[in-house]
Amino acid sequence: MRLTRGAKAILDDSDAYGVEIALRLAEAAGGAEVILVSMAPNQEVQGVRTGLAMGATSAVVISDPALAGADALTTAKVLASAAQRVGADLVIAATESTDGYTGTVPAQIAALLEWPALTFAKQIELRGTTVSIQRQTEDGYDVVEADLPAVVSVTAGVVEPRYPSFKGIMSAKSKPVEQLTLADLGLSVEIREQVVAVEDAEARAAGQIVEDDGSAETEIINYLAQIKVL
User: Fold this and answer.
1) What pTM was computed for the model?
2) Which has the closest alpha carbon to 117: 146, 96, 97, 143?
3) What's the CA gap between 17 and 157, in Å, rounded?
4) Distance separating alpha carbons of residues 96 and 100, to the nearest angstrom
5) CA–CA dist 138, 121 (Å, integer)
6) Could you give the CA distance from residue 192 to residue 69 in angstroms, rounded to a whole number?
7) pLDDT in tens, 69-119
8) Shortest CA distance to 216 belongs to which of 205, 224, 206?
């Protein structure tokens, strides 16, 4: 079975954080361009229109029948090529999409471009030609810096994405959206990965309830010993 993406495309919630971060950096830099790059089926532009309504300058959408069922590496190759085409200095991406969940595309884009990858950013700052991030860790965060150009992936919830204003929605309709195919990027791809099945996650078994009649402590200890926790 192949995963069919026939539904209308929207801006991924994870990507909205990246768009917001890019807009804030552009505003702080005094008007840098924010160009959205999307790989979407059927020349679908609704997702990037939302980003344009938020304030992005323009968008590039790569749509090609040969990309149906594209795996993470193929996606990274296409997006990396598009980033080169628009002359990006900084690529900002979500940590992972809410459909594929591989979490590998940003690092793959960086590797293909031979740029540094700064991942899991919860805060980003530009100082001249240096990008500095606070990298989310289990214990707090690390400060990581690199020279531009670079790829940064942001964590969900890093900022509160702005809602498109009515003026922004109206202006987004006239902002440029460049439609490209693989041939336009000089690429050819071979999809080697297929989603062969989609199944529901196994339901959790009901827990064991211990009622304290004076022996609950012993019963719990025996249970933990049985499952080799003790």
Assistant:
1) 0.78
2) 146
3) 7
4) 8
5) 13
6) 9
7) 788 888 999 999 999 999 999 999 988 776 666 778 999 999 999 999 999
8) 224
Nearest 10 degrees: CA dihedral of 83, 116, 14, 99?
A: 80
Report pLDDT digits (tens) over 189-220.
887 777 778 788 888 887 888 888 888 888 88
Amino acid sitting at position 87: G
Q: Which of the 8 DSSP states describes residue 49?
A: H
User: Please, which residues have CB within 8 angstroms of residue 127's CB and are 6 or more apart in sequence?
Assistant: none
Q: Are 117 and 107 in contact (CB under 8 A)?
A: yes
Contact 37, 60 (CB under 8 A): yes
Tell me how far apart the alpha carbons of residues 187 and 201 are, in angstroms, rounded to a whole number.
37
Name the token pair of 108. Answer: 């793959």
CA atoms within 13 A on the CB side of 198: 8
| CA–CA separation, 98 and 144 (whole Å) | 26
